[in-house]
Amino acid sequence: MTPAAHVSAAIEILGDLAERRRPAAEALKDWGVSHRFAGSGDRAAIAGLVFDALRKKASAAWTMGDDSPRAVMLGALREARGMDAAAIAALCTGERHAPAPLSDGERARLETATLDGAPDHVRGDYPEWLAGRFTAAFGERAAEEGAALAARAPVDLRVNILKASREQALAKLAHLDPAPTPFSPIGLRIEAGRGRGPALTAETAYVKGLVEPQDEASQLAALLCAAAPGEQVLDLCAGGGGKALALAGQMHNKGQLYAYDADGRRLMPIHERLARAGARNIQVRQPRGRADALSDLAGRCDLVLVDAPCTGAGTWRRHPDAKWRLAPGALELRVKEQAALLEQAARFVKPGGRLAYVTCSLLRDENEEQAAGFLAAHPEFAALSGTEMAEGAGLPKLARFASPRGAGIRLSPTASGTDGFYVAIFRRA
Fold it and tell me: Within the chain, what is the greatest distance between any pair of CA atoms?
């Protein structure tokens, strides 16, 4: 396929997404099945175009004065890839499988349109209905934070300290040119390119459990929990086990970590990951119908982690399609779920123990306001300050990220160079 044909295919897929509001990966897979002549390189190029268009959907539509799939793709070639009108016109010849030639209006927009005077949600490429919430979270920096969430994310890896040091992992992966992460002492970073990322699952260091893909913010969230060897720890929303594995490393396989999730299907990947990582102190607790699978842990845990289901607004660098599928009703549902999980988690924390609340969101509804609601309902808990959290984890530099909006630490692409994450720690009297 030619580059022009790639653009045509991307426009077709964007049209499918506009009609059916489904994950981009699903639409791309279906396109590949129905166009088997496209090789793996073609599919990768098309996926890159689609995701670039989704990253810059609002600003691309503003540039073109039109939000049709074709207009968004043309605008994204300029906004995301820096192509000028002549270069874009060269792709749009109408010959063979190329897009139709540019109209006079399209060429004029590509040559002269600017984002001057555009509202924050356009310059930041996030949904208009979230504009007020981004302003509440970031004030004058709302558009800047949104734009950072529209950029490509690097590939971050967490070194499994049960099996290797960071220096050993760096040596094993030297051919990928990794660098130490700025804040996590056990992280590696491989900078993003325009093409495919490294095939990590084929790397010996991954197969043998020396490293796991995990954004630095997620690593820091686990480190801020400050799990210690010998403690009793409950991961209440363990899912696939990413943070449970990180906590097991901190505990050096000493003590007991209980991994639970109300949706037992989400726990399925954890078993293979435990074996690969060599984590031996994790006990997986499956839901048991109406029976309480965790009743024996009431009032016994030194640490309870609520890695809460959320809108995922902090991970839009990796999932740019998710922000356009997010609806106000989904946010309301998540806020209710989070409050219920915090209420459930409180009963497992022993006197003097800690409750860690984590989201991969940047919205105050899911973060500081959720923390304030919990504290108001539970006077037996007090929030640790950002300084106390950072120093307790042995990471004093993280104190600079203490939230100015309430309890907890807030990480974001512009502030910390990571995904957007929020972490609050509550201690029981």
Answer: 72
Amino acid at site 323: K
Q: 378, 398, 373, 374: which is closest to 388 by C-alpha? A: 398
Q: Is the dihedral of CA 39, 41, 43, 46 positive or negative?
A: negative
What sections of 208-257 are H helices per DSSP? 216-224, 242-250
φ/ψ of 144, rounded to 5, equals: -65, -45
Quote the tokens at residue 190: 């491989």
Q: Are residues 70 and 129 in the same domain?
A: no
Nearest alpha-carbon partner for 1 in 50, 52, 51, 36: 36
User: What are the residue numbers of the active site?
Assistant: 360
Final residue belonging to a domain, choices 90, 116, 142: 116
How far is it, in rounded angstroms, from Cα 183 to Cα 409?
A: 14
Q: Which domain holds residue 131?
A: 119-150
> In 10 A of CB 40, how many CB atoms?
9
Q: State the sign of the Cα–Cα–Cα–Cα dihedral 91, 93, 99, 104.
A: positive
Residue 156 and residue 219 in contact, taking contact as beta carbons nearer than 8 Å? yes
Q: What is the pLDDT of residues 261-297, one digit of tens each?
A: 999 899 998 999 999 999 999 999 988 888 899 999 9
**How many domains is the chain built from?**
4
Predicted confidence (pLDDT) per residue in 190-247, tens digit: 987 655 677 888 899 999 999 999 999 999 999 999 999 999 999 999 998 999 999 9
Whether 299 and 324 share a structural domain: yes
Q: Is residue 222 within 8 Å of residue 250, measured between CB atoms?
A: yes
**341 and 222 inside one domain:** yes
What's 38's DSSP letter? S
The angle formed by the CA atoms of residues 69, 75 and 77, to the nearest 5 degrees, is 105
